[in-house]
UniProtKB/TrEMBL annotation:
Signal peptide: none annotated. It comes from the Bacteria. InterPro entries: Doc_partner (IPR013432), SpoVT-AbrB_dom (IPR007159), SpoVT-AbrB_sf (IPR037914). This is AbrB/MazE/SpoVT family DNA-binding domain-containing protein. Pfam families: MazE_antitoxin. One of its GO terms (molecular function) is DNA binding. Residues 3-48 form the SpoVT-AbrB domain. It comes from Shinella pollutisoli. Keywords: DNA-binding.
Length: 73
């Protein structure tokens, strides 16, 4: 499958066909991880549950920052 690199604002990008997105199980607004290995690009869907867990952990760490700092001593 060939796609063309296009100008998108100040960046450049590609349009991923709907069939590929469906097979990956992602949709507009979802996050994916881009990895480059040996000159090849790999698109990896982010696990939504993990993203939510990380967000909750960050909020908890911010809320209990002082207590966590004291416990770390």
């Amino acid at each position: 499958m060939n796609v063309t690199i296009r100008k998108i604002g100040n960046s450049e990008g590609i349009i991923i066909p709907r069939e590929v997105l469906d097979r990956m199980g992602v949709k507009a607004g979802d996050e994916i991880r881009l990895e480059e290995t040996d000159g090849r690009l790999h698109l990896i869907p982010q696990d939504a549950d993990l993203a939510e867990q990380l967000k909750a952990a960050r909020l908890g760490m911010d809320k209990y920052r002082v207590a966590l700092r004291e416990l770390a001593k």
